Amino acid sequence: MKKVLRNNSLSLVFFLLFLVSIVGQTITGLRQYNEKMQEKGRQQVGLRQYLSSGHFLESTFENWESEFLQMGLFVVMTIFLYQKGSSESKDPDDPKGEEDREPDPNKEDAPWPVKQGGLILKIYKHSLTIALFLMFAISFGVHWYGSMKDYNEEQQLLRKPTETAIEYLANSRLWFESFQNWQSEFLSVLAIIMLSVFLRQKGSPQSKPVDAAYADETGE
């Protein structure tokens, strides 16, 4: 059991942090939503109703959307774009690394898609990118629906016209919500790419060795 916890400690800790954060968001979001309903003279809602509300869906999935977008783009762009000296980039002077070699189906512990070959292997070669962009598409779709639902609820309170899903796709509110999150994600990726050239964190695989030169990719 100790070995399982040790081997999966990074993912477990971040999953626990996620759970704490989503619970905190839900509790505070429910309170904020009900305060707004009270101000408008409307009936307050319970937790189950809130979880299907536009307010919760929009606030949750607009953030997930931006996370999956930046990770998907980062994975794709690091295939052919470089930043010399960054631990987040391949070496532009020697771009063919271990990740570029062709899979060996005869390797004893190779994943089953490698042993299967054919179309399964072709998909598996790009499965990380496919998964990230699929999660982005799903998150954007739920964000779109949740934002539209929240917008229409507000319009109804003000006795103004509501919009269909297609109409709302042209609403600046939807894209403002997206762009405000996208820009922060792209900035954070830019920061780790550039800061890892000059700054170090001993013990972290996201950093080069402390004594590595700025121009080195790995310090080897």
Provide a descriptive summary of the structure in words:
- The protein is an all-alpha fold and 220 residues long.
- It folds into two domains: 1-51; 58-220, no CATH class.
- It is built from nine helices and no strands.
- Helix 4 runs antiparallel to helix 7.
- It starts with a helix and ends in a 22-residue tail after the last helix.
- The mean pLDDT is 92.
Q: Structural class of the helix and strand makeup?
A: mainly alpha
Beta fraction of the residues?
under 5%
Most strands sheet: none
Number of strands: 0
Radius of gyration: 23 Å
The low-confidence runs, each spanning 5 or more residues with pLDDT under 50, are none
Percent range for helical residues? 55-70%
N-to-C series of helices and strands: HHHHHHHHH
Mean pLDDT: 92
Shape: elongated
In whole angstroms, the N-to-C terminal distance is 35 Å
Number of helices: 9
Number of domains: 2
Short description:
The chain has helices at 2-7, 9-39, 47-51, 54-80, 112-116, 118-125, 127-157, 165-168, 172-198.
What's the arrangement of secondary structure elements?
Layout: H1 2-7, H2 9-39, H3 47-51, H4 54-80, H5 112-116, H6 118-125, H7 127-157, H8 165-168, H9 172-198
Helix pairs in contact: 4-7, 4-9
Transmembrane segments: 128-146
Region (Disordered): 86-111
Keywords: Membrane, Transmembrane, Transmembrane helix
